[in-house]
Design brief:
By secondary structure, this protein is of the alpha+beta class. It has 3 domains: about 110 residues, Trigger factor ribosome-binding domain (Alpha-Beta Plaits); about 220 residues, Trigger factor, C-terminal domain (Trigger factor, domain 2), CATH 1.10.3120.10; about 100 residues, Chitinase A, domain 3 (Roll), CATH 3.10.50. It contains 12 helices and 13 strands. The strands form 4 sheets. Strands 6, 7, 8, 9 and 10 form a 5-stranded antiparallel beta sheet that branches. Strands 1-2-4-3 form a 4-stranded antiparallel beta sheet. It is elongated and about 105 Å long. The relative contact order is 0.10.
Length: about 475
């Protein structure tokens, strides 16, 4: 095998590889001999079919198989010999091959950049924590109690007031015609709950049991298409008046909610709140760490990776712009496609930079994801599809890209945890508003160029970080 380097510029490498015809012929004959040992053909005993006959009948198929194997083996041998670390699958193109002649092909790839890692112990970060809010715990219990409240008849007739439950019959019509779903009997309507069309409940207030009257309302514009914006009249009859009785906050109530007693219920709510707040804390400190890592590391980026990432990001943006235009960032509205593409290329460059950086940290420090960790993650995913757990496992087992999508965030989190253990991380108690607030955005962004020296305006970095915060690498 002859290997000639044709490109060694930056992170790009290219080679022309020539495999002698004799080597290919030797492999073809070896494969034919292997097949002949078990081949069946009319007129010959099993295993006694002449190799020459097999070559005549199956030569083309075997030739294709050998070429594929030869290219795979020789390209991999070249990568090992040249001590290359490809960042993506190499691009291979057959330049020349005629039966009986040499195989000539080209291989192009981009290699992993040289990354000088910073001293993680010198990184300074702040972990913002929000303590459990006792008032909120009490508020949640109050909401749970509202959901469990009962009602009892009011013995003495009186005008209906907000908070009462009016048991009513009603029939709705538009332009004198009844419409589907507009009729009910013995319906318990809590006045002031806002559960009916705007304006309906207010016209019940002041009425008494036995009253029969019309309620005129206009359906909201966002209602069902056949009724949206239309005027309607409901014939209403008040049949009974009931008053709500709040649930008693005691151990019996807590047991209905699945707790041992009231104090246990409060503990569980407090733990749930702390766990949710801890997730936000984790997300914030991780994002801050990635921002710092992005700022303190400078290295060349593979242009092909940036382009692939950009194409994925831009495709996602175009799909959202077409299918969900209401979800497009306000900052993006009014910008030209050229302006947006430049911004999204910066986002793509950041993703690539952080991905390569975290991968290098993991490699150097031998941080890996175990099969058990991957299986647990897939199990959690499968639990969302009751009755289809087996199909979910088979999907991941037979889909390398899907499996990689599970492994990558697991590895990323382990690398982040490793860095946070080494970094100088202080803790600060803050409010939920401070925790959720966007960080100050004053530093310039690195540009998506082959070298990362040139800087972009601060406003662009603000937009880029905001967009990328909830995406890969910043979750």
């Amino acid at each position: 095998m002859q290997v000639t380097e044709t490109n060694n510029e930056g992170l790009k490498r290219a080679y022309k590889i020539v495999v002698p015809a004799a080597d290919i012929e030797e492999k073809i004959n070896a494969r034919l001999t292997q097949i002949a040992q078990t081949a069946n053909m009319p007129g010959f005993r099993p295993g006694k079919v002449p190799v020459s006959l097999l070559k005549k009948q199956h030569g083309q198929a075997i030739m294709g198989e050998i070429l594929e194997m030869t290219v795979s083996e020789s390209s991999q041998a070249t990568i090992v010999e040249k001590e290359l670390r490809p960042v993506a699958q190499p691009k291979i193109e057959i330049d020349k091959f005629d039966e009986g002649g040499d195989l000539e092909y080209s291989i192009e790839l981009e290699v992993f950049p040289d990354i000088e890692l910073t001293d993680f112990s010198k990184l300074k970060l702040e972990r913002k924590k929000v303590p459990a809010n006792e008032d909120q715990v009490e508020e949640i219990i109050g909401q749970m109690a509202d959901g469990q409240k009962d009602s009892k008849p009011i013995e003495k007739n009186r005008p209906i007031a907000t908070g009462d439950v009016a048991v009513i019959d009603f029939t709705g019509s538009v332009d004198g015609e009844e419409f589907a779903g507009g009729k009910a009997e013995d319906y318990g309507l809590e006045i002031g709950s806002g559960s009916f069309i705007p304006g309906f409940e207010e016209q019940i207030i002041g009425k008494e049991v036995g009253n029969e009257f019309d309620v005129s309302v206009t359906f909201p514009d966002q209602y069902a298409e056949e009724l949206a914006g239309k005027d309607a009249v409901f014939a209403v009859k008040i049949k009974e008046l009931r008053e709500t009785t709040p649930a008693t906050l005691d151990d019996a109530f807590a047991q209905k909610m699945g707790a041992e007693n009231l104090e246990d219920l409060k503990d569980k709510l407090r733990e749930n709140q702390e766990a949710e707040l801890a997730q936000y804390t984790r997300m914030r400190v991780k994002r801050d760490l990635l921002d710092v890592l992005d700022d303190v590391h400078e290295f060349e980026l593979p242009g092909g990776m940036i382009e692939s990432e950009f194409e994925a990001v831009w495709h996602q943006f175009e799909h959202q712009r077409k299918e969900h235009p209401d979800q497009i960032d306000e900052d993006d509205k009014g910008k030209t496609d050229d302006e947006l593409k430049e911004e999204y290329r910066d986002i793509s460059a950041r993703r690539v930079r952080l991905g390569l950086l975290l991968a290098e940290i993991g490699r150097i420090n031998e941080i890996t994801v175990t099969p058990d960790e991957v299986n647990r993650a897939i199990m959690q995913e499968a639990q969302q599809y009751k009755g289809q757990e087996k199909e979910v496992f088979e999907y991941y087992k037979n889909n390398p890209e899907a499996m990689q999508a599970v492994q990558s965030p697991l590895l990323e989190d382990k690398v982040v945890d490793y860095i946070l253990e080494l970094a100088n991380v202080s803790e600060k108690v803050v409010t939920i508003e401070e925790l959720m607030a966007e960080p100050e955005e004053a530093k310039p962004a690195k540009k998506a160029k082959s070298t990362t020296k040139k800087k972009a305006p601060a406003k662009k970095k603000a937009a880029a970080k905001k967009k990328v915060a909830a995406k890969k690498g910043d979750d």
